[in-house]
Amino acid sequence: MTGERLNDVSGDVSGEVSTAGAVVAGDRVEPEAPVGAALPRDEPGGQADTKPRNNRAWFLVLPVVVSVAFTAVIPLMTVVNFSVQDIFSPTDRIFVGLDWFRSVSRDPEVRAAFVRTLLFSAQVLLLEIPLGVAIAVSMPRHGLGVPVALVLVALPLLIPWNVVGTIWQIFARGDIGLGGWTINNVLGVNFNYTLDSTDAWITVLIMDVWHWTPLVALLAYAGLRSIPEPYFQAAQIDAASGWATFRHIQLPRLRGVLTIAILLRFMDSFMIYTEPFVVTGGGPGNATSFLSILLSKIAVGQFDLGPAGAFSLLYFLTVQIVSYVFFTVLTRTGR
Amino acid sequence: MTLILDGVRVRQRGETWLEDIDLELPNGMTTLIGPLAAGKTTLMRVAAGLLPPTSGRVVVNGRDVTSVSVRKRSVAFVYQQFINYPSLSVYENIASPLRLDPSFPRREIDRRVREIAEIMGIGDLLDRRPEELSGGQQQRTAIARALARPVDVLLLDEPLANLDYKLREQLRADLRDMFAGSAGVVLYSTADPAEALGFAAPTVVLGEGRIQHTGDVAEMYDRPPTLAVAATLSDPPLNLLPGLAHEGRIDCLGVCFPVPGERAPAGRVVLGVRPHQVTIERTGPGDVEFPAEIRLAEVTGSATFLHLLLPGSRHLVAQLEGTRLFTPGQPATAYVDPSRVLIFDEAGVSLPARPAAEADLHG
Fold this sequence. Notes:
The structure holds two protein chains of two kinds. By secondary structure, chain A is mainly alpha-helical. Helix content of chain A is 69%, strand content 3%. The relative contact order of chain A is 0.11.
């Protein structure tokens, strides 16, 4: 999406240049043309392209262009700059072309983290989307239960991310954490996320489900609420089963919000950083080192700016491409 | 086949939505007309079984179905909004009630779907999805879905209200033909007097949650028993003027005229004048004259609606034929033939109340 923004920005800039000229020319011809002058002119048989145009409105776009350039384009270009150079000191740098991209994309550690992150995102989507829809369907539609359910469901969303990590770090501990202690002592299963890779993975996954399923549920609930009551009555009159009602009325009308939910949850889970960093720090071993954790290790820990820059750009492009594919597929299938 | 609503009353959140509804609907079509918020949809939902009445009974074919779930009843419902299953094709939409009805023979489904689609004029759209159809086609699909399965009670809740004018005319004619041969009870609700008059079916006038009157719609239009019935059946809206009756004469906004016919009211009355009965040229010797000021002229093409201001800040709308131009602020004279004026007493009962109408009203 940012990629599209970039294109837009460049389009805006060139538009700005050409229209600025047009404004000047327009001013010379009609010094007193008011802003709305192009519209209500009475020209019997006049054609659209002969009407005088006032393009000054383009100036209103300028603040956006400037702020996007400052906050997104220029920083991104810095990263691009890093990614094609080997920097020893501010004065001592060598242009290396695409070497960093080559080495990063061949790095087994990066590849392992990529597979791990993709697997994590897939599991997050498979768990959170159906669960969120199920919660939304079973939430009340009328009465006092509505605000109560909304507040209860929304609670995890109100907690800062690092606090979520801290909560789960303690909750899942075998000695003092309620969850970990229960699993170890009541269920009798040996569970220790600091030592066992699978346990660590499960902890991070469940934490994400706990934290973000409410978002899916709230989006789906909003979608469900927008379905007019007569649809449900029509299904009742036809004596349709609950499943058929869900399949043929609720699910089709959730398409839009579910597309957004899937995109949001994919992007967010693919870039997850804070919570696993707090809970496991990427461990044990590399079991929960997702791309973001590995990237911050290279960029901040080792200060390898070249590889980190190349890594960031590849990461960014991956999110773009997968999101684009998701969006295209989701909006086209079944139409 | 009969549908009886016996003493039905609906109260929700402390408000009365329906009161004292006693209706016996025979086979064939009945029109239900009422203004906005009259309780039409509530009555339909009670009849369908979607809403249990607070008290009273719903009887279909002599069987009390008040507490029978809508899933087990033989009803079909068409809504004002175009309600179809969005993920199913037109064919599957029409077939779905048949598939879900265990008593409908499987082998008949395909034939029935195609037959009903042909009648509704959507035979060549069967593979489309509802979202690919125009509004009129969507509503035809919804109506086809309701008509496909033979049901005891077919309810149509303002089915044409969301369609544009031309489609409405066309679909109305189609529906009239379809219901003519219907084997079940058909209840058709509308807020449009032209629609009720066009169907010319037995008509129930509903207002403020109560049945105002039942009977022949043309008769009710001509000689409305109450002000509520007259107002419901008048489009454009009825002009209402206050009057004082005294010794065979009526004083209305400073204009006095003798009471026509054998009516003998006394005291305060309300005069109802339909816009097309107001003219700005004298049409007969008995016409009553009102001095007026022109406020606004709305031109629709075939008619001009002239808004007049009468003494006492009363408004009067005249429907004049053709396109006519007026200057707002100019004086004019409004002419009304007193023999065509509807006269109601303060309670809104027509004067003189004819015996037949009175019996209906209280029966």
